[in-house]
Amino acid sequence: MALTLEQKKAVVSEIAKVAEIAHSLVAAEYRGSSVDLMTAMRADARKTGVYLKVVKNTLVKRAVKNTEYECISDALVGPLLYAFSQEDPGCAARLIKDHAKENDKLEVKFLAVGGKLLAASELSRLASLPTKDQAIAMLMGVMKAPIEKFARTLKEPHAKLTRTIAAIKDQKAA
Predict the structure, then answer these.
(1) 61, 64, 67, 70 alpha-carbon torsion, rounded to 10°
(2) pTM over 0.85
């Protein structure tokens, strides 16, 4: 069923709002995918903070105009599934990569991050980016390491003195 003009305007404004706050975009061709696999992917998308939508390319072209995703306008060809990452830059790429393993009909066409159009071959690189929690944990580890080393350095002279006294005591006892 065709959309009315008002429905098209609503879809365009919805995608434009999502594109303004999204960290990255992954577009994949879904032709020939089963309904069960698409339903499972939509459920996983809701859990991981990915906005997943199948929309006509002309509407997406209007929606991304004057956003950082305007670079994809020339690449919009064929039936595409759009996955916008809302949590972190890699969550849409991880979702599509995981589901592409199960569904050989799901083929990544392009990615967009930071106003740059990337080839489909960059999917693994984008999917390997850490999540927000992982990045914070890595940062905390880097920040904590110098403090721990400093504490060990301050503690070492006392520990060395204690070991030396214990060795002298053991030597005199023998």
Answers:
(1) -30
(2) no
